[in-house]
Structure formats: structure tokens, C-alpha cells
Design brief:
CATH architecture: Orthogonal Bundle
Number of helices: 15
Strand order of the largest sheet: 1-2
Number of domains: 1
Order of helices and strands: HHHHHHHEEHHHHHHHH
Structural class: mainly alpha
Largest sheet: 2 strands, antiparallel
CATH class: Mainly Alpha
Radius of gyration: 23 Å
Helix content: 55-70%
Strand content: under 5%
Number of strands: 2
CATH topology: Ammonium transporter fold
Shape: globular
Length: about 325
Amino acid sequence: MTGVDPQAQVNERPLVLLTAPQLVSPMTTQVIMRDVLIALAPTMAAAGILFGLRALLVCAVAVGSCVGMEWLWCRLRGIPNTADDLSAAVTGLLLAFNVPSTLPLYMVVLGSFVAIILTKELFGGIGRNFANPAVVGRIFLAVAFPVAMTTFVAPGHILSPVDVVSSATPLAPTAEQLSLKELLLGTHMGVLGETCSLTLILGGIYLLVRRVISWHTPAAYLGTVVLLSLLTGHEVLPQLLSGGLLMGAFFMATDYTTSPATIRGKVVFAIGCGLITCLIRFWGNLNEGVAYSILFMNLLVPHIDALTPNTPIGGEGVRRRKRGGKDHE
């Protein structure tokens, strides 16, 4: 007998808490990000066809710089390398889809630095960033280089010369004159990932079928924009199929880390994105508001999660018993 109190030994043991979920699933981060890249591949191919090889070069530089910066960060800090989970590649491709093909390549690298280092890694890496890195990178570029971010090329065949035009986004008043075919196929000016609506819809359907995302966020986001467009007398199809709405609803507002965890929270989050997007589009000084709306709602996610929690298993019974106890008092 040592004379040591067993209860004291138990009390001295460190308390270890594991964050949810504790269930093992074959859907690893790498598998999820691979599916997102597959979903984005048709839009990248459409960008190459519409805007030429320069568009593919922008995509390659954005992906390469994002992956390289994450690898270098992990190497310098002596922490496990996370570049192979493909999350940095997804960030790079989404960032490329948010810029025009004419953007100077050094600006693409600067946007990657803001997205990966300042928005993601400085806050602890994947799963800990406060906002969608691609969204923050896009907003930084729009604020720092407004002229370069609004200089587009007229779509043409991959082997044909294209004319450089400094213009507003397709959500300018003339956008409502675009035909459904032009909106679906992307034969109008814009950033790489917002013109060809057909490929974005196909990519979104793929993610839904693979259950990488749930339907609640895109449905609530797009539905809010449709409803507000009808109420304010705006054409619905141009609002849905031009600008970055489809890309934001399917690929950026659904980000696991920066969106609510519960279904109710996702709906609240998406409705907020739709409201802010329409406020900026209809009455703001900017033609596009998707990125700003997602960033603003990202900041509110902790509060949305706190206000829309799931009821634990058995929680309803406990709640009824508590109410019954109060009634008997």
C-alpha cells in the first residue's frame, strides 16, 4: 500500500476532450477536396476555351502559388505538411475563378499570399480560418487593384486573338439584355469562373450527388435572390446566371470551416448572403456583392451556430421533464 488516495490520482489526470465528429468516415479532407476539384474542372475548361491559354496560365499560377506557400509555411514552421490534402489547390482554383484572365501574374501571387498565409495559416491552418480564403483574396485584389480587376477580354476561340476591354462586370444594366444562351455558355465578359453558368450548375449538381455539400445553402441563397429580384422588379435570370452568384452559392458559401454546422444555421447563413448580395447589387455602388456578402456572413457564423444548435439525442425528453417539474412546483 502506498497510502495514496485513488480519488486524488483520478482528479490529477488531465481531462482530454475530443471535438466532434467522433465517427470515422471514408470522406477525408483529401477526398472532399478532390471532388471539389472535379466539380470545378468543367468551368476551368470553359475558361480556357472562352478566354484562351492566358486563362489556364492564371489558374496554374494561382494553384501553384497557393500550394507552394502552404508547403513552405509548413516546412518553415516544422509542422506536418498539409499541402497534399488539396485544400490549397481548391483555394487557388477558386481564387483564379474570381479574377479576369488579363490580371498580371504577380497580382495573382499576391492574392494567393493573402488567401493562404494571412487568412488561413496565421489562424491555425485548415479548419481554423475565420473566412473563406479565396473570398478574402478576391476582395483584397478588388480593393488594391480595381482597374486590373475590371479589365476583361471579349470571349473568343482558344486560338483566336481577343480584344482587351476595361469594363464593368456583366451585372451592369446592359447585362439584362443578354440572352439565356449567352448566360449559360458564358459568351460575355467577366472573371474566369462567373461567365459559363452551365458548367457551374453541373459542378454544383456533382457536389450534391456526391454529398459533399447539402442542398440547403445553395437553395436558400439562390431562392432569396430570386424572391428579392421579383419583389424589386429585376430580371431573375440575369441575377441568377451572371456575376459570381452560382460560384458563390455552390462552391464558397458551402465551405465547411466558414459556414454553420446545423441545417437551420445554414439556411440563416444563406438567406443573409442573399440579402446582402441583393442590397449591394440593387442599391450599392458595386455591380457585384457575392464575395462581400459571404465574407460578412462568415464573420457571423459563431453567433449563428450559438443561436441554432442541434438538440442532443434525448434532449427533448430532458426538456419535457424540466417543464413538467416546473409545472408541478
